[in-house]
DNA sequence: TATGAATGAGTTTTCATTCAT
DNA sequence: AATGAATGAAAACTCATTCAT
């Protein structure tokens, strides 16, 4: 993107739609049919999923510019040309990948069931987030966005719009709930919902950069963080 | 190799004038001219500085892999080959840049004068950090480290050793001081000094990714953060 | 990397015709067409052969260091990148070329049919060698080995192992045969089989360096040489 | 040479002259004056000799194209620019070097004192040649000429004119002398004086390519060779 | 004269993209 | 639809040559 002079029409909306419909849950799909008897569409979808999976791994491991489509194809078990049957080019592939990657995240986030106290809700959400994101490959996606965001404004924009602003809105609501119920003393916290998630972000970064030097217990850290906000906790 | 065409005479249209202006004794010449006419060593140092500066800009803007040394040279106003007089190759240039970039950061961190309460000390340090790092180009260096760290383990290692572990050690000491003096109620905080700096990290990331969508008052956010740790502040 | 401008459509002006001509079952297609239309594997082999041929010419004409792969590609009628589909890099290409170049030589050498006297056998071999090597491009390969050997020890090693030591062993055997049969009086010759081939080597060198100043009748020279060894010959 | 488009006037005659007058016998010059008190001209001559010496080593080790003037300068202990005070460019430096390198060889060759039988004369000459050339760095110069000759026709021409044709003429005369005196039975040998020196050439090549695999006693080999020509020798 | 930093054309190598099969 | 050989623009790196000091 940075330097590309003329970009052929990429129709990001179309591409995104395609991604949404094509994306087949990798593990769940297998049992549906006996392996060999997959039809055209299914096979194509499988191939696409393999490419997406492989590309994700490579992009995470090397970043956008250093990733070779050759490697992606090899890892996905398809020919290089096949990638171009599913994606316009490397750049749009990357953008689409990042976009589709966060779909499940949003699902989990908004799915947070509302029962119990505000602290419990947040704790539950945090536990999920840490287990699903910080400790997994998805954390690397966040790092990837941090890494490539400046060069892919479209991604930063999309991410801000679809994830960050929504997520922070939800957190703000929770904080206000907590303030109203007296669980949270610091009213000002609602002005900076980022403060609530900051330890999670730091945990994500820590895992990919420094985990091997000094492992970090993200859950425990987050609990201490919540103690700062809600006051000393009683149990573990 | 054998193919090179003869080099055409460079800019100096009148070669004969050389004899007139040149021939100044090396060492004695320095005092003769005031500022603009630097000697060889100085000029070389200037060039190197220009390369470092230009490379920093390019690396920050594009990341390691997507940065072209051609562009670095152009931006620095030197020839491509000149870069190789100062750095072995692109990779070691990058590593050296990252390393030298944090030297001033360390300076500022360790320079923190010890007067006043723990909160005041931290507040002072945070203000400096935010002004000097979050709001400047140096914040991008942190983002760059986050972005390229996994591909440059040497950098992550160096950074952990020289900056992170030292910084966290200092912060831990401060926290323990605060706990001892009663300023900080949460003893557990000392186990996770990352919590103290998390908002600063988040601010850095926010600035480079989302600032244009929603500006963030990092200083104010940090104050609210400190209120969580030290209890409600009195003044603004 | 990110900078690439979109590739303009290559030579094939009418892309639509592709659908008509394509879609032929891979394996079955071969017999359909006679000679000019080679299949993929054949075409690749042809290309490789063209590269080998072109590279040989260039290496012989310029030596290793001064040869440009650009020229090799141009001469072979392929794109620069195509070379790298067949060879790892310039150096290994050179080494492989030299290695494969001598295979036919070895074939000819060992193929020497055993009939007649020792002198006749040697004469026959020498005639073959001179016709096939000294007077052809292959002689230049020998000169190339002499030229580049010191910088490519692997080549010198290989050549010594596969060609020189074997060839000299064979010659030694022949000499001993001749000594035993009384054809050769000088028993000591078996200690220096190099003496037998020395004129051929000198002829090779002479051809590439001095032929245009003074042509050399290698065959006649070799006959005189054999007269020294076997005694005066009867006919011319 | 091969590709160079425009060559600035190199005035090879002038250059050669310069070389002839500038060339100071390296070892003999030192005792003439106490080391530190060398004057301008002497210093310059010393520098030039150092460059010639260093260049020779490098050219022999790497060939023309692969030799870097940087390395030559370093080895000679001068600055890179200094080379250009003595030589027009790399190419003319190479040509001049090759030319001046054989001057002492010619000296030794023509200096051969005429006493004794033809065999003795040749034996004496061969011994000198093997000791002075085959076993020394000068043999590599011959190999260098073989290696680079085709790319430097001027060198091949010069060498043929100044060394080869003269040398062969001398050898032819010797052979005719031997034939006349009855020492040599093979009259035809005079038609191919190359046969006489072939073993020496082969020895030179063998030394640089295969000596480490199988050492070759060049003197002994040459004696056997002479036995072929003159008949069995009596003593060693 | 000597120096060596600077230059930039030239060379090797890579890799996104195309297209005949 | 899938393949993967072929392409060639672009990028890293080299090094002969220049020239200010």
UniProtKB/TrEMBL annotation, chains A, B, C, D:
Protein name: TetR/AcrR family transcriptional regulator
Regions annotated as coiled coil: none
Biased composition range(s): Low complexity: 10-28
Signal as UniProt keyword: no
Keyword DNA-binding: yes
Domain (HTH tetR-type): residue spans on this chain: 45-105
DNA-binding segment(s): 68-87
Keywords, ordered alphabetically: DNA-binding, Transcription, Transcription regulation
Positions of the UniProt region annotated as Disordered: 1-42
């Amino acid at each position: 993107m940075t330097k590309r002079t003329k970009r052929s029409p990429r129709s990001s909306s179309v591409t995104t739609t395609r991604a949404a419909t094509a994306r087949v849950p990798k593990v769940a799909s297998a049992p549906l049919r006996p392996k060999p008897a997959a039809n055209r569409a299914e096979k194509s979808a499988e191939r696409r999923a393999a490419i997406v999976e492989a590309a994700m791994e490579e992009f995470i491991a090397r970043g956008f510019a250093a990733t070779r489509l050759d490697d992606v194809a090899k890892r996905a078990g398809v020919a290089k040309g096949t990638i171009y049957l599913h994606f316009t080019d490397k750049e749009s592939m990357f953008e689409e990948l990042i976009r589709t990657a966060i779909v499940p995240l949003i699902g989990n986030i908004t799915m947070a069931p509302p029962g119990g106290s505000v602290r419990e809700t947040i704790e539950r959400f945090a536990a999920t987030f840490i287990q699903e994101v910080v400790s997994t490959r998805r954390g690397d996606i966040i790092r990837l966005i941090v890494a490539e965001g400046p060069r892919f404004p479209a991604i930063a924009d999309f991410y801000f719009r679809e994830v960050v602003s929504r997520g922070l809105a939800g957190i703000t609501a929770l904080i206000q709930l907590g303030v109203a119920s007296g669980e949270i003393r610091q009213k000002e916290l609602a002005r900076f919902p980022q403060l609530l998630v900051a330890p999670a972000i730091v945990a994500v970064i820590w895992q990919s950069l420094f985990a091997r030097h000094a492992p970090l217990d993200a859950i425990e850290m987050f609990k201490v963080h919540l103690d700062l906000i809600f006051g000393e906790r009683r149990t573990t």
